């Protein structure tokens, strides 16, 4: 059994992971455009709503950026959101909020990281916490508004009770009207904790059919979990430490229904100041409380599958790393392969049905562990298990098995697979951001390898990719900072004419942190990212300028410069024009420029690449087929290529360096040379390291040699002297 592996990381890695929001939701919006998009959620048109929401967004941005961070400041923003009119007129708020507030939270979670400024290691966590407090502030303000509507009734009731002592005959009828006919619940409680009387509104609220037959303990009605709050509040009132106390309490009706209420309990005194009883004014907040709970659920659950969403997933992971949490935590991050094809081919309704079926299977596969939907076609299984990585891997295998059976959806039998990234860490030695980033990285590897598999996070691989990303990130600026330079390796004639014919331009990167880097460290990255286009343009222009200087110094004896061309460059729309522009700008004759291309770049091509080569040859530029022998060129195809020379790959030449070389190696090289000559092509041998190789190649009829035997690559300034020495030899 494999030993558990922790996920190492650095502050830089943690910052990059947590501070980089997903852009799946679309392009970022400006603050004003976000406010306008937000205003579109309102049930009724309001010309000034966008401006009011923009003000709230600016306040939210200030809250998120504050140091120290205090998420509860967002409660005031939530309260003012209620007053903004986003949820319509006062009578519409409760119904409208059920739709508008969850949609608002989704919009702010998607666009907030781009608009509400600065990123950082905890940017996502800050936004989630602030939005949670915003919901609390909104629902609290909604509750306060409802209570305020009853303030007048409460005040009237209290004044009427006091008035009984001073002017019973004048106020009794008014008091009884408020008590008997008011919409708010009113109860009279003795100092011994017995409920003496309830008004009709309170009896209806509590599900009682008629007046109380006899006093009953207030604890008969209170929810068991709130008994402590009631006892504490009652004591404070009776013992005189407070005359009014406001509480949020739950009561239980005889039918089992739980009521969520706001209670204002007041101590009533007689004319001498002695306490006589308590008057409780009770407002049923059940509908609004359940609304708040629904809104909170909507903000943390996916609407389609009802699974926890990304916000709750991240919250779970962070809480798992708190003191007292599990020893090991793991994540299986997964992507449903092929869902885009289902959506495009059969429609999003079928795609949604697939997602629902996937959610059901994942819950079966995960058992007791938490399944979340973190994005469009992305899910996660969050695992807390002391066994660590082996346990997480078993869950990942169960997940893959869950996809083995096709999905029957809407009359269609659909085979979809999953890519799963697996990561686990000991909570004592890692952090939440490291673990979540590791799972995402492993998921990306699984997708890159074709999907339908699980891939474990590998710290060494990640370190290598991070280093390559850092190189790529600095490459664009490196051109402007003039960190690249060219060195030139001589191309020397073999046999009777040992003159230097040309020099191959080789790029080096003088990296400020890593030192001098050869092309193997960055060219492939440049090709994959497209950076090879500006880099290749710089290499071409620089090489032409240096060769032009040789030509001015050496005249007709000047060597040509040979420049490697990437397949990416070869198909650029105006690449031929760029070559012509480089020649024109530097004054280099076309015959003194050789462009090296690989077999793979033109193999089987009948389009832009081949046309570009023909145009360049017509303009007088030399063309060489590099690394010949490693591809699959046929003789028929080779005859059609407009090249001047073949460069035999060094792997064929290496076998000629030993005195007891295999005759087969010589036969292969000789065959390649003979074939090239038959086609009228010049032949260059690469990797010539010894005099014996050079002698054997000359005997086989090879025209030009290149390698350390003739000299290492050096600066452009060396080339004229190398040429003069080769002529004098």
From TrEMBL:
Residue ranges constituting the GGDEF domain according to the UniProt record: 327-459
Stretches assigned to the PAC domain: 245-297
EAL domain sequence ranges: 468-727
UniProt domain PAS: residue ranges: 171-241
InterPro entries to which the protein is assigned, alphabetical: Biofilm_reg_signaling, EAL_dom, EAL_sf, GGDEF_dom, Nucleotide_cyclase, PAC, PAS, PAS-assoc_C
Residue numbers spanned by region Disordered: 1-26
PROSITE patterns per UniProt: EAL, GGDEF, PAC, PAS
One of the GO BP terms on file: regulation of DNA-templated transcription
Pfam families: EAL, GGDEF, PAS
Protein name: GGDEF domain-containing protein
């Amino acid at each position: 059994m494999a030993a558990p592996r922790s996920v190492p990381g650095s502050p830089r890695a943690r910052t990059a992971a947590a501070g980089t929001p997903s852009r799946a939701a679309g392009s970022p919006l400006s603050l004003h455009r976000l406010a306008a998009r937000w205003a579109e959620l309102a049930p009724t048109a309001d010309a000034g709503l966008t401006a009011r929401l923009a003000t709230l967004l600016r306040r939210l941005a200030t809250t998120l950026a504050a140091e120290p961070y205090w998420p509860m400041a967002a409660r005031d923003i939530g309260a003012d959101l209620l007053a903004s009119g986003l949820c319509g007129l006062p009578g519409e708020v409760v119904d409208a909020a059920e739709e508008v507030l969850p949609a608002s939270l989704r919009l702010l979670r998607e666009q907030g990281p781009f608009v509400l400024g600065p990123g950082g290691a905890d940017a996502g966590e800050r936004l989630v916490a602030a939005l949670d407090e915003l919901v609390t502030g909104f629902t609290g303000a909604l509750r306060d508004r409802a209570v305020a509507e009853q303030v007048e009734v409460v005040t009237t009731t209290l004044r009427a009770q006091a008035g009984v002592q001073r002017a019973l005959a004048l106020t009794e009828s008014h008091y009884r009207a408020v008590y008997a006919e008011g919409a708010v619940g009113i109860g009279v409680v003795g100092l011994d904790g017995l409920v003496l009387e309830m008004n009709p509104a309170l009896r209806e609220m509590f599900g009682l059919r008629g007046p109380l037959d006899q006093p009953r303990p207030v604890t008969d009605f209170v929810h068991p979990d709130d008994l402590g709050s009631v006892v504490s509040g009652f004591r404070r009132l009776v013992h005189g430490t407070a005359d009014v106390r406001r509480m949020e309490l739950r009561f239980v009706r005889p039918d089992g229904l739980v009521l969520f209420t706001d209670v204002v309990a007041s101590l009533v005194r007689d004319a001498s100041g002695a306490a006589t009883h308590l008057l409780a004014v009770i407002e049923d907040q059940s509908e609004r409380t359940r609304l708040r709970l629904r809104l909170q659920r909507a903000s943390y659950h996916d609407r389609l599958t009802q699974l926890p969403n990304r916000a709750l997933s991240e919250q779970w992971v962070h809480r798992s790393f708190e003191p007292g949490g599990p020893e090991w935590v793991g994540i299986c991050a997964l992507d449903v392969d092929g869902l885009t094809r289902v959506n495009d081919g059969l429609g999003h309704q079928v795609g949604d049905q697939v997602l629902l079926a996937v959610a059901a299977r994942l819950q079966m596969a995960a058992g007791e562990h938490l399944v979340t939907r973190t994005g469009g076609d992305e899910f996660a299984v969050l695992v807390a298990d002391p066994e660590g990585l082996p346990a997480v891997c078993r869950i990942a295998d169960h997940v893959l098995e869950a996809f083995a059976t096709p999905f029957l959806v809407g009359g269609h039998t659909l085979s979809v697979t999953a890519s799963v990234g697996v990561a686990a860490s000991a909570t004592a030695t890692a952090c939440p951001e490291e673990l979540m980033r590791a799972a995402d990285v492993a998921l990306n590897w699984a997708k890159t390898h074709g999907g339908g598999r699980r891939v474990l996070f590998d710290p060494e691989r990640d370190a290598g990719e991070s280093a390559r990303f850092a190189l790529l990130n600095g490459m664009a600026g490196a051109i402007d900072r003039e960190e690249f330079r060219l060195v030139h390796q001589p191309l020397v004639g073999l046999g009777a004419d040992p003159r230097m014919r040309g020099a191959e331009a080789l790029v080096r990167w003088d990296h400020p942190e890593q030192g001098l880097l050869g092309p193997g460290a960055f060219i492939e990255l440049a090709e994959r990212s497209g950076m090879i286009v500006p880099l290749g343009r710089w290499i071409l222009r620089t090489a032409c300028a240096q060769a032009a200087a040789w030509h001015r110094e050496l005249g007709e004896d000047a060597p040509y410069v040979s420049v490697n061309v990437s397949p990416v460059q070869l198909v650029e729309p105006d690449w031929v024009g760029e070559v012509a522009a480089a020649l024109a700008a530097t004054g280099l004759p076309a015959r003194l420029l050789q462009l090296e291309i690989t077999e793979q770049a033109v193999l089987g091509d009948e389009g832009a690449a081949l046309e570009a080569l023909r145009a360049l040859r017509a303009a007088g530029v030399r063309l060489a087929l590099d690394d010949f022998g490693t591809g699959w060129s046929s003789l028929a195809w080779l005859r059609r290529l407009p090249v001047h020379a073949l460069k035999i790959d060094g792997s064929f030449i290496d076998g000629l360096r030993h005195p007891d070389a295999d005759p087969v190696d010589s036969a292969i090289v000789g065959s390649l040379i003979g074939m090239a000559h038959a086609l009228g092509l010049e032949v260059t041998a690469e990797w010539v390291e010894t005099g014996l190789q050079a002698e054997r190649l000359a005997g086989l009829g090879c025209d030009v040699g290149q390698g350390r035997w003739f000299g290492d690559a050096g600066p452009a300034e060396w080339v004229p002297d190398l040429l003069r020495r080769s002529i004098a030899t």
